[in-house]
Design a protein that fits this description.
heterodimer; A: 168 residues; alpha+beta; 5-stranded antiparallel sheet; two-stranded antiparallel sheet; rod-shaped; B: 463 residues; mainly alpha; 7 strands; 6% strand
Amino acid sequence: MAMILVLWNIPLTAAAGEGNKTAMAEDGRFMTAVETVEAKAEPKRDAETIFSFVKGDIIFIIGETEEGWYVVSYQGETGYIEKTASRSKLEEKELDVEALNAELEAQEAESKLVVEETERYRAESRRSKVWGAVIVLLILGILATGIISTVRMEKSGRKNVKKNKDVE
Amino acid sequence: MDGIFSIFILAVSMLVMMDIDIAGLRLSVLLFFLLTAAWTFCRAVRVREGGGWFRMEYRVDLAAIILFLYGLFSFIGKLFQNPARGEIRYQFQVMLIVCIVLYFLWKEAQEFSDWYFDLILYGALIGMAAFLFYHLCDDRAAWLATELLGNSEKAASYLMVPCLVSTAQYCVCRDKMRSFFYLLTALTGFFCLMLNHNVVSFWIMVMALLSIPVIFRPAAQLVKRDMQLLFMFFFLLGNMGPLTNFLELFREITVFEMKYSLYVGLMLASGGIFFFYYWRRIPEGADLGKLVLRKMGKGYLFILKMAGIIFAGIVLSGNGIAVLLAEEIGAEPSGFAQIFNNDLAGMLMLLVVIILLMERIGKNYSADKPTTNIFLLMTVVFFGQCFFWTPSVNVLPVYTMMAVMAAFYKEKNGKCSGIKTNISGRIKENENSRKNINGFGNADGNDFGIMEYSADGSSRGGQ
């Protein structure tokens, strides 16, 4: 899930990187925090800490500055981690493509399910409306046929009685 | 006055399907009780003004009076029962009293109009609409028809009323538009029965369809219409498998197994071969309304017997190809067994009344009394279904009326003049004298007989 969150942020972080005036080398790798690592708002030691990663967190490195800072992206924001200070605290992370794919597929299936469920609900409601109309028409039609035929027969019965009387 | 109350009771029975308890009684039972009490009161007023009271003519009347007194005393006893010993249930006693009183009221009301049948159908159409809405649209109709939707057996007993009435009426009706009304009602009823998925009810319905040419005079027109309905029933049954397996047409329904659809399809095809082999032998231009198919009638009787034997075999063995049926039979206690377990004395008395009533029905039977035969068909189906389940309370007055009318309705017997023809259609013998149709058709190898009803017989369906 964490990976997906990171990937989700890629376009945002790229945009943020473009706006950064500090010259930096293009990167794009994942690292895992071995210890707690702090990310600064600017590539300066005394800058404000904007977020800190705890052990096991996956960090997306989007570049490196000439001053020796990693440019990281997290939840749409860009932060800076000092390269020398964090050398022992960060570890290269191999991208688990299969797990990522599996997670993406699961996500896709889930959203597909939601869409299917919505479609099914819509179809059911449409079907219900069609059946409702058919049932109402059918029952009304049968009732009307019964009533009309009764009235018609009563009329013809009365006519026959009248005819018989006239003949007599 | 009698007619008004009959109409009310029949209408209420087909329309009140809510299973609500009021003072320990179901809403429908309470309404029947009140309506019957009002009818009895009106009859009592008429007696004071010089009208007739109940006549004690037959042994069954005496048995019914004894059963009524038993029900009354049992009901009073229940009222004085200590409530601390458990919940007091007196619904059975009340229903028994109501049915016996209705028996006497309907016995005296000898005039029967076909309007009553139509009324049952109109009421049932509304019930069927609620049933269809529940199974095809959504469950908004559930509160309206709790009695109908809660239990498949009760729904089957309800749905079989319009199915049987419309089927029998369709077979004997001669007016085109009226026939169309009965046909549509029968088809809607069949479809509802399919959605209800009660295998016993399928068997009962098939047996009822097969018994029509046996109970009624098997005129070609009647046999043709009966075959149309039988074909439609099997066609629907055979197609429910593919419809429920491959198409998402219904909201909530038990899926029909495909193998049964195959069996039904094969049965339909083989039955069609035999039927058309015989049907082609009817001389061209013959009046189907007057042509009696005696051999066809015998064939129907044979098939009916066979179906009965197969059904009994499945019931007794409890397995075979019809596992579903065998399972269903054991699932619900029969109506008779339920009364037997709760009230042994009541059940024995009820049995005596039923036996004596059947004796009267047998005496009143004639193949040429179409209306009485509809009553007979309904009564037989009612007693038949009591072996497998307890029928729904709200249709008990209808079935009571049918049983009483089958036993006591004095319908004019259709007289006929007849000519016998051989299979090639050549006139063999001409009988000029009018004779009762019961004696028609000697066993001389002739397949057909032409009958001609007298005015009261031929006006059937015209009402």
